[in-house]
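Final paragraph of the annual report: two paired records, presented back to back.
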Amino acid sequence: MTPNKHAVALASGGIDSSTAMAIAIKQGFLIHALSFDYGQRHRCELDAAKNVVRSLGIEDHVIAPIDLRAFGGSALTDDIDVPKNRDISRISDGIPVTYVPARNTIFLSFALGWCEILKAQDIFLGVNAIDYSGYPDCRPEFLEAYEHLANLATKAGVEGSSRYRIHAPLLQMSKAEIIRAGSEAGVDFALTHSCYDPSPEGLACGACDSCILRRKGFEETTIPDPTRYRS
């Protein structure tokens, strides 16, 4: 395995990041998985990330601690109610309170730093701009701009020893298409977690935007939904 076939992949433990990692593996990349303990209320996603990474045969997994609760400003990092039972047609209207300010910019910066250490040139993440909650850092314009920044703001980029690439293989897929792609790539969805407001036991609420999109995705496929809901 040559250094430029190594890649860093963001691993949240959800359907999207898990599928993106599995696709990267199918493309021949040796994946170094990166997760974040950032003070999220749905911290059980880290256990899901560990289980998914292990199931995909990935040996290198870093969980980086960042305290984004120090700033708050999101229902995921502050004492703000998670929106529930929103109409599916309005989920992507506007930017919801579950948006964590600059989260993907922060996460990609860590991934980029690790790439420099590994002499890797590729970063995979599971962002999606079709069935999603309207987050500004999930759009193709953001990814293009960040890739440009990556090649301006790094020693390897300036010296020309690396050309960084941001891969978002799910960007234009519906949730149902992502689930089908993940199933074909060997993702065990029973290990994944999507809920923004789970019970203390890790059961999904079934009513937050993420749960609604997840349930809709499975309903549009023939793949059984393995999610454990509160009711």
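The closing record of the year follows.
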Amino acid sequence: MEKFKKNSKLILFCMIIVVILVLNHIFGWSDYLSNSENLKFLSDMINDHFALAALIYIGLTVVACVVLALPGVTFAILSGVIFGPWWGTLFCLIATTLGAIIAFIVGRFFLKDSIKPMVAKNALLKRILFDDAGRSDIVLLAITRLVPLFPYNIQNFAYGITDISLAHYSLYTFVFMIPGVALYTIGTAGFTSGANRWLYFGIAAALLVLVMFLGWFIKRKYLGNEVEETTAEE
């Protein structure tokens, strides 16, 4: 009975996930939202109801990324097509940051007590997420946002089981997602733009180089010893 009480939040969380998956299978929400053809109505709204179109896009993106676990890149591309490179980048950043915050809060409420001990058993994740003496939150977020150690949607829930503050998590998540989001929105805008096509392609290429360099640099500087030490311990 004691064990059940301890894991009651985890059980409730799993039940909610199962219900969502069943409903999604029945009604096909993920298939609908991942098909850009079904969201063309947003393009039609822009001229007359720009703000409303932005709010609908942000709402749909949050639901799709958090509840349905659809890849955020789908909505970055969609944002670049509908809103263009600059507004598209801003709206996608707002949406994905809001989604990440919601997932963080859900993870902290439902998963921290039960999942943290299990995650801590993984030597590498334990070093990165918990044994971070002297390592600032900004470095921690930079490592996991720019170096793909595990899927982005899982990251958002996983951060809830750490001791990082919600304010730091929100700010640094927004900042470190800028290069990746801009890469997709600006690159996509290059395919739909006429006069500025090669300018957008050039910016996207520069962002790709930047993201790859930052990922390499952070992995080399902050993860090199962790990986080697973890391997040695195993």
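The CA atoms of residues 184 and 219 lie 22 Å apart. This concludes the annual technical report; the extension proposal builds directly on these records.
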